[in-house]
Design brief:
Chain A has 19 helices and no strands. With about 375 residues, chain A is an all-alpha fold. In chain B, helix 1 (about 1-30) packs parallel to helix 6. The chains are: A mainly alpha (about 375), B mainly alpha (about 300).
């Protein structure tokens, strides 16, 4: 009570000025602009949005797919978030993801290990490799002052070509294809992968249609791990000395150095953790969904989408879970408007772009609110 | 052998041009104090509008200008957000990178029967080669110098940009606003106007860059056409130390990367994986960057919103 009375802002004012409110307003603006674009193009936005919503929620299979779409984005979002909170801009999640997926495929295919251990080994190796990959950018920044944006852009392309080079080597390439061999079953994290096609599995599932539908998508443990990683990132950032130091460097490098924090080491550590996160997204995707890596003609976009996910999530660890789910739902549900309506699915990109644009300008909402407040006062 | 070298140089120049336009855009924007990570999106919309207008109108120059305008409109969005509303410039740029391709593909599907690829341009709608016929066909100099008009234009613009930035009053104002907006403001230079000018011009140039790809290097737009080139151009800006001539050298390096890849993909002469070779310029860039000593060369106020009376 003491505190409440002491606070000069009312609850209403605090809600109106909170970051979450701006985010929600931005999402509404995104939906609105998407609707207007559809309307201008001659489509019925209400119909389109209903198809998208049905396309995500009307069957458990759809929900399952939306979660599968969201999983890697939540984690690349965490990677960008972690770097961002420590004062670094990680455009390199894309390449770190590629390295993670590639190493996961190598370990998953070549090493023969018992069930659970194989998964853990694949995950750790992929995360470490991608962590080192991210660490290169950190090292170049710390020791040579190379801007991490340019370093990570370069590393993305190097990772892409490295992936393509290795995928096409005879030892890894599945003959007559542009993809690698599949990982061993022991490295899979797809839920009940074998069982669901077995005699008993099919029998049981036909008695449980919702679960059957859910499992007809490659449902996997990735989402659960994504949530655990989000909690871990939150914990590191907010509850550990390491997180405090890293954030201090991001907040004010010189002050941190004066306070006895090793700035160079912090930058490298931060990029390594960000890289390990993005790499684990790639590893989980391989173990849960794709089972292999392919020759990439262009960037897949997991890292770049992760930037938007991080921004929409307010660059908070837990926010990433929700923005990642929003992203996954939009990316999975969006294309469904195309067959029935002929409406371009790219309206989803326009919506996402609009959301991010409005997130960039909280000042706009503040100006509008202040104007309203002034208007109310004048009316009195 | 000589012709092979000529082919590599010629292809490199051709691929450098789109990057060069876009990188020059980055140079002007950053020098005025606004980070433009949205170059990729602006380049994509330019590439699409260039190809679409070229297809419907049939005149490459109208298509080229339309592409510039399209890039400029998206840049205006970036300027409104980052100059007027003091947005985080990186975030606003990321937004443009979703909006540019989103709008391009959206319109493409509407105009071209649901396809994200535009129809191929007829020969007369493609960028002309002004020096065509000047050299003996397929001679060394023909392969190098018989380029699309956009290639010459890009290199002329490097000079124009250098001259404007370093030899004119406007250029001095732009750099002043990028280095120390408060002092520029005190001296009566409108920070807002200069920054709007810089950002919009950067969008126009990025739009040109996109069109230099879609109506010259190839003859249509497809979703994978730009994929990442805007970011490469951004890297070229930083690599080139935020100077037009520096960006040019960086673009030539990246252009050479693509030229080499095309050459090796077609000829298969040397027994090195084209994937590894394609990687080389990016590795080289990192190596060169490590070699740079004096690091902090970005315009001092780049990335910061300017608020009067702060």
């Amino acid at each position: 009570m003491e505190n409440n009375r002491g606070n000069k802002y009312s609850i209403r004012q605090r809600i109106l000025s909170s970051k979450l409110t701006f985010t929600i307003l931005s999402i509404i603006m995104g939906l609105l602009v998407g609707a207007i674009v559809l309307l201008i193009a001659g489509f019925n936005p209400v119909q389109a949005y209903r198809i998208m919503i049905d396309g995500v929620f009307s069957r458990t299979k759809y929900i399952s797919y939306a979660i599968i779409y969201a999983t890697p984005l939540i984690i690349t979002g965490l990677s960008v978030t972690f770097a961002f909170r420590t004062g670094l801009f990680n455009i390199g999640a894309e390449g770190q993801y590629i390295i993670g997926a590639l190493v996961a495929t190598l370990i998953g295919y070549f090493l023969e290990l018992p069930l659970v251990i194989h998964v853990i080994v694949v995950f750790l190796f992929a995360a470490i490799a991608a962590g080192l990959w991210g660490g290169i950018a950190g090292f170049l920044k710390a020791k040579f002052g190379v801007h991490e944006v340019i370093a990570t852009i370069m590393l993305n392309w190097i990772a892409l070509y490295l992936n393509n080079y290795l995928v096409m080597r005879p030892f890894l390439r599945r003959p007559e294809s542009e993809s690698s061999y599949d990982i061993l079953d022991s490295a899979s994290i797809t839920i009940l992968e074998k069982w669901k096609y077995s005699e008993t599995g099919r029998e049981w599932l036909s008695a449980h249609p919702y679960i059957k539908d859910f499992l007809s998508a490659p449902a996997n443990l990735g989402f659960i791990i994504a949530i655990l990683l989000a909690i871990l990132v939150w914990y590191i950032l907010n509850r550990t000395t390491l997180g405090y130091e890293l954030r201090a460097v991001g907040f004010n490098k010189d002050a941190a150095e004066y306070g006895g924090i090793k700035v160079e080491k912090s930058i490298i550590t931060s990029m390594m953790i960000a890289g390990a996160l993005a790499g684990s997204a790639g590893a989980l995707q391989v173990m849960g969904v794709t089972k292999n890596v392919i020759m990439l003609p262009v960037m897949e976009g997991y890292g770049f989408d992760g930037i938007a996910v991080a921004l929409i999530g307010g660059t908070t660890a837990i926010g990433n879970i929700f923005s990642g789910l929003l992203f996954g739902a939009l990316q999975y549900g969006g294309p469904k408007i195309q067959p029935p309506l002929g409406a371009p699915s790219e309206v989803v990109d326009i919506m996402i772009g609009t959301i991010v644009l409005f997130i960039a300008i909280p000042k706009l909402f503040k100006i509008i609110m202040n104007a309203r407040k002034r208007g109310e006062k004048n009316a009195k | 052998m000589l012709n092979d070298i000529g082919f590599i140089i010629g292809t490199s120049l051709m691929y450098a041009a789109p990057l060069l336009f876009t990188a020059l855009g980055g140079v002007i924007s950053e020098n005025s104090g606004v980070v433009n990570i949205g170059l990729e999106g602006m380049m994509t919309i330019g590439a699409f509008i260039g190809a679409a207008v070229g297809y419907y109108v049939g005149n490459p120059w109208i298509a080229f200008i339309a592409a510039g305008l399209a890039g400029g409109i998206f840049a205006l969005l970036h300027a409104i957000a980052s100059v007027t509303f003091h947005a985080d410039q990186v975030v606003s740029g990321i937004a443009i990178n979703f909006l540019g391709p989103g709008v391009a593909l959206f319109i493409s599907r509407l105009l071209f029967n649901g396809s994200t690829m535009t129809k191929s341009l007829s020969f007369s709608a493609k960028m002309p080669r002004p020096l065509n016929g000047l050299f003996r066909s397929n001679s060394f100099s023909d392969i190098i110098f018989n380029q699309y008009a956009t290639v010459y234009l890009a290199f002329i613009l490097v000079f124009v940009m250098w001259y404007t930035l370093y030899k004119t009053k406007l250029g001095l104002r732009i750099r002043a606003v990028g280095e120390h907006p408060a002092s520029a403001d005190t001296l009566g230079v409108s920070v807002t106007k200069i920054r709007y000018f810089g950002v919009i011009l950067s969008g126009i140039l990025a739009g040109f860059g996109g069109a230099a790809m879609s109506i010259a290097v190839v003859s249509n737009f497809r979703p994978t056409l730009i994929s990442g080139q805007g970011f490469i151009a951004l890297a070229a800006v930083i690599f080139g130390k935020w100077k037009p001539q520096g960006a040019m050298w960086a673009c030539l390096l990246f252009g050479a990367a693509q030229g080499l890849t095309v050459y090796l993909g077609g000829a298969g002469v040397i027994n090195i994986s084209s994937q590894l070779l394609a990687m080389l310029p990016y590795v080289l860039t990192l190596v060169v960057l490590v070699g740079f000593v004096g690091k902090s060369v970005a315009p001092a106020a780049s990335g910061e919103a300017y608020e009067k009376g702060e």
